Amino acid sequence: MAGLNLRFTEEELDALRERAAAEGRSMQAFAHDAVISAVNEHSRLFNEAADHVLKASAELNRRLA
């Protein structure tokens, strides 16, 4: 499995440690899930924007075809 090293400030590490502990999870699992969630959210927002553009330009695209 590939790895990734991330650097955090002491304050960021403290916040990460606290959130992970509050959820009863390891820092690694908490950070991993947060990154995956961010990637998925970015993909979702991109897809929503693409759908919006396609719908908004559908009539123009029809006339240009």
UniProtKB/TrEMBL annotation:
<dbReference type="GO" id="GO:0006355">
    <property type="term" value="P:regulation of DNA-templated transcription"/>
</dbReference>
<dbReference type="InterPro" id="IPR010985">
    <property type="entry name" value="Ribbon_hlx_hlx"/>
</dbReference>
<protein>
    <recommendedName>
        <fullName>Arc-like DNA binding domain-containing protein</fullName>
    </recommendedName>
</protein>
